[in-house]
Amino acid sequence: MAKDRGAADPWLTAAVWLLLCVGVLMVYSASAVLSYHKFDDSLYYAKRQLLFAVLGVFLMLWLARLDYDTWQKWSRTGLIACFVLLAVVLIPGAGILRNGARSWLGLGAFSIQPSEFTKLALIVFLAHWLPTRKQNLTRFTTGLLPPLALLAAAFGLIMAQPDLGTGTVLFATGMLIIFVAGMRIKHLMAMVALGLAGFTALVASAPYRIDRITAFLDPWQDRLGSGYQIIQSLFAIGPGRLMGVGYGLSKQKHLYLPEPQTDFIFSVTAEELGFIGAATVVVLFLIVVWRGVHIAFRAPDLPGTLMAVGITGMIGIQALMNIGVVTGMLPVTGITLPFLSYGGSSLTLTLVAVGILLNISRYAR
Questions:
Q1: Nearest to 103 by CA among 59, 165, 147
Q2: Helix 207-217 and helix 185-205: axis angle, to 10°?
Q3: What is the pTM of this model?
Q4: Distances from the Cα of 95 to the Cα of 45, 87, 90, 119, 191, angstroms
Q5: How far apart are CA 331 and CA 4, in angstroms?
Q6: Which of 105, 139, 64 is nearest to 360 (CA)?
Q7: 8 Å CB contact between 247 and 239
Q8: Phi, psi at residue 96, to the nearest 5°?
Q9: What separation in angstroms does the CA of 60 have from each of 8, 81, 154, 287?
Q10: What's the distance, Cα to Cα, between the start and end of the chain in Å?
């Protein structure tokens, strides 16, 4: 590894800080009404989000100074632990059922989402494992099949919850890492075709997923049912216009918009801060992706490159999916917006991932 050359990437640092600040402010605004109705405390969600933000920032700053190759010795153990948690969460009585998905494990007053840990654990493991198989990745059976089987196993456990949104982010991020590591184009095209066929089968196997597709095509066919979420989201975005209705003045968060503090927080952001505020959030995500790609290209070794690609891809893909859903460009998948949406596991793990990315930037050539 090259000698540490000093400060972490300033553009990435600034973009993450701004997104985190916007996130805490918007979680408070978006959740205040719901918090008061559910817990008689308008700060309930905001206080917990701030707690996890502080924890995540502490871990991010620590990991920004911890050599990223330190993760190599723990990558296998970490991934095995995540697979165990993914299996445990499926056990009735162990996993917590929310919105039809058994995706959480209770820890006292808090809960964790093992699938969030698995995304990062898989990135770290593949980044250190694939370079040892680089010469074989051009061969499907002996080189490509083992990492694909690992991806499929993780995806299958997450789909058993079921959580199509998180599973899609995990699988797409894994495929991106494998491709950058040396996967052949013809194999990639074959996997894309197979993935589309599998996605179609998953949609066809569950009536509620078919309803989401039909609602995406024409939400007004069932405006009080499957189309309700996207219609309410567009009702929030539209009145925001250029400057927004004003911070804290959203109407849709008054129990019209479902999950305003998580999946649809971007809708409330667009309503209150307008096109300028929403566009600023998008630009900040683009800066994160730009600097992540820059860091990946300049990493001193292949594990660093693959880890930077995976972390950047995970954040970028998830942000793209969430914003696509709330603006009606993609079917509803139940995916949160990194840095902004309420959620301890998601926020903490995203900041941990950024800490690793910042550390890689300190060794950039």
A1: 165
A2: 100
A3: 0.92
A4: 22, 9, 6, 19, 32
A5: 44
A6: 64
A7: no
A8: -95, 130
A9: 12, 22, 25, 18
A10: 10
Q: How far is CA 326 from CA 124, 199, 213, in A?
A: 30, 21, 14
pLDDT average per 10 residues of sequence, the chain (365 residues) = 70 96 95 89 92 94 91 88 90 74 74 88 93 73 82 90 87 91 78 75 68 72 78 90 92 88 94 95 97 94 94 96 91 88 90 96 86
Mean pLDDT for the chain?
87
* Cβ pair 292, 308 in contact under 8 A: yes
Please state the three-class secondary structure of the chain as a single string.
Answer: CCCCCCCCCHHHHHHHHHHHHHHHHHHHHHHHHHHHHHHCCCCHHHHHHHHHHHHHHHHHHHHCCCCHHHHHHHHHHHHHHHHHHHHHCCCECCEEEECCEEEEEEECCEEECHHHHHHHHHHHHHHHHHHHHHHHCCCHHHHHHHHHHHHHHHHHHHHCCCCHHHHHHHHHHHHHHHHHHCCCHHHHHHHHHHHHHHHHHHHHHCHHHHHHHHHHHCHHHHCCCCCHHHHHHHHHHHHHCCCCCCCCCCCCCCCCCCCCCCCCHHHHHHHHHHHHHHHHHHHHHHHHHHHHHHHHHHCCCHHHHHHHHHHHHHHHHHHHHHHHHHCCCCCCCCCCCCCCCCCHHHHHHHHHHHHHHHHHHCCCC
